[in-house]
Structure prediction request, 96 residues.
Amino acid sequence: MVFLSMANAGQLYSFQQRVIICMLPLEHADAEQLADVMAPFLSPQGKFATYSPTNTLIIKDQPSKVRMLIKVIKGKADLSECQNFENVQEGSNKIP
Prediction:
């Protein structure tokens, strides 16, 4: 059983409600087709967009959902796969 202090619970809640954007260049899949296939796995506030000239999938969602989608797409749940993030750690209120 895990108990969180009110401060920790508030940080966890605010982290899960936060939305990030990940630009994920693809080499072996079509970004537009992948966006259609993966759309059911987004949270209610999540969205996909694509940029065809570079075959880039743009994911906007909660950090946990973005990690899950990256793991499915790239095989590892690491936000360093995103062009615009080096590392976002859960519980952190800062995006590098």
Notes: The domain at 20-81 is CATH 3.30.1370.120 (Ribosomal Protein S8; Chain: A, domain 1). The longest helix spans residues 6-17. DSSP finds three helices and three strands in the chain.
